[in-house]
Amino acid sequence: MLQKMFKKTEHTQPGAQRTSTVMALWNPAGGDSTKLLETLLPLLHKAEESVAIVELPCLGVPRIAYRFGLEEVAPAQTIDQLLIDYDRRMLQPFHSYLLPLEGADCLLIQPRSKPDSPVLLKLQQEQTLVELPSYLKAQLSSYNWVFFVLQGQLIHPLTFFSLRAADKVVLVAHEAIEWIRTVGAYTLMKENYGFSAEQLLMFSESRHSLIREQGKKDFNLIAQPAELLKLGRVSV
Known about the structure:
Structural class: alpha/beta
Low-confidence stretches: 1-18
Radius of gyration: 17 Å
Distance between the termini: 31 Å
Strand order of the largest sheet: 3-4-2-5-1-6-7
Number of helices: 9
Number of strands: 7
Oligomer: single chain
């Protein structure tokens, strides 16, 4: 079904009356949060919810394109081009950057981008990394769901300010070795950076005893994608 959902389709102008939830998907241990995205999309597609996906390129790894088999993406329809144009104050109409796919409108990392020449090295204004997440949140406010798919660390400005801009932050752990770093990130964000417990959600489908026992005791760990959407939705 996912292959069908990620076929190209015509872009649909988002309506103006929808209430948006911006949800950041982040694996603090550096793992791949697109696995979770893959399980959420069919649920939202079935519910006929409008979805926008933004893949932030702090590490420059085009994980969404790799996972869903998107070998060819026009350079003009990528987060790479949007970043450069925003940085140089040469923005085109916003919808022209979106890659319209069945089930979601996307801003993805260019799948053929060069690892030794990431887009962040081409930027001239430090403020671009600070401002872009809030700009994206405003531009995509007409979608029911906006997913910021992150791959950096808190020391990366684009990752940090995307977490700040999100209504809900989902900290994802697939393995026990990732859980340790995830718990550390949760504690740091709550105690040092002022994120609220209501904003931070812990997600893992792992059956490892370390994750299940501590997660149930300390974090109200979420293990089902449908429950994550229910708890993550922003109330009107």
